[in-house]
Amino acid sequence: MTASDSAARLAYSLVRVPGKVIVSGEHAVVYGTPALACAIQKYAFAKVTSSDAHGVYLKVPAFGIDQHFSNIQLAQLAQATQLRHQQFLSHAALLSSVVVNPAQFFAAAIGASGLVDVLSHSQGLEIELSMDLVAGGGMGSSAALVAAMLAAAFKHLGQPLTAAQLISKTTQSEHWQHGRSSGLDPYVCVMGGLQRYQKGLAERQAVSQLWPLFLVTTGKPDSSTGECVEAVKQQNFPASLWDEFARVQQNLLQCMLHNTHLNDPSISSGSAKVNEACMVSAIAANHQLLQHIGVVPTRVAAFIAQIETGGGAAKICGAGSVVGDQAGVVLVLGLGSMDLQKICKDYGYSVQQMQPDLEGVFYFD
After folding, report:
1. How large is the average pLDDT for residues 7-35?
2. Residues 253, 156: one domain?
3. I need a labelling partner for 352 at 20 to 30 A (CA). Which of 121, 288, 304, 333 fits?
4. CATH number at residue 237
5. Calpha distance 207→257 (Å, rounded)
6. So what's the pLDDT on residue 207?
7. Rg of the chain in Å (alpha carbons)
8. Which domain holds residue 233?
């Protein structure tokens, strides 16, 4: 069966990819320190149908994209974006110059993926992307969208990607966004679950029941992930600081794994409270480190201080921001839902309980 025959058989291909939050180790993961991240039940969706028009017709309502790209344009945009990224890596250009706009970013990701080589000369694709993730808020929205787009497109053409191929192709475009991506976002979004990630290698952690964690949306940061990473890099922190991030991550992971065993009803509630206190302490320590590297805006820090006054702990779970008042998504533990909602209302923030996604990329067949 040829790729065109397979596409004709399928009316459309629909794929769902979860977003993610970093529970511990953001920024430090770029320096080879392990990070703990969890896929969440907030998703990017891609729907791909065949088209008589050559090339790709791309629709992404969240970014106002409704545009057709020829095969030549897709290839040229990929080459141009890759060149600008190389110039950034050689200090000949700013990171902000690598990605011109969202439309060209998604088109370049298609062009760099090898999809054009799979398309026949008589066939095109229509790709529509949507999501219920917070764009630019630390939920891995760009990785989830690109992964969903490529997974659905290649499947529709009869050449589905392996998980490893999908991660690799998605990571390529993440470098353009972030300068030097650790690869964490693509891996966790594609594989799902709670992952301990370090230098491209990951170990899935058991999650039988998620402890009561909440995600608070403080608003889209005024600085991008890449800009935050570069701002931190310019401060030239010693290796000992990243070692401290690693210790905090390990402490938190041990608390979380112990929490899994506390689901046994025969275990005393006192033990559970002690373990929650352990997690609260680890998250608070992580927050202090993030404040030290300068990625927690003053207003968000004040919000977290109020959480701590109430007996809980909180931290940003993305890159944060080096300018402005907003820092994307904040992770909160140890505070009751009613109390947290009241504090969030005072700040104009929204809140939701965090639910893990254990599947990763999902194909609707």
Report:
1. 86
2. no
3. 288
4. 3.30.70.890
5. 8
6. 67
7. 21
8. 213-353
**CATH number, position 196:** 3.30.230.10
| pTM given for the model | 0.88
Which pLDDT score is estimated for 6?
Answer: 47
Give the containing element (helix H, strand E) for 167: helix 163-178
Distance CA 146, CA 176 (A): 12
For residue 116 the two structure tokens come to 């054009």
Residue 273: pLDDT band by 50, 70, 90 thresholds?
low
What phi and psi, each to the nearest 5 degrees, are found at residue 131? -165, 160
Considering Cα of 155, then 160, then 166, then 168, what sign does the dihedral take?
Answer: negative
Residue 288 and residue 313: Cα distance in Å, rounded?
A: 11
CB 136 within 8 A of CB 196: no
Are 36 and 195 in contact by the 8 Å Cβ rule? The answer is: yes
Terminal Cα-to-Cα distance of the chain (whole angstroms) = 18
Residues 197 and 224 in one domain: no
User: Using CA atoms, how far apart are residues 328 and 145, in angstroms rounded to an integer?
Assistant: 18
Q: H/E element holding 129?
A: strand 124-131
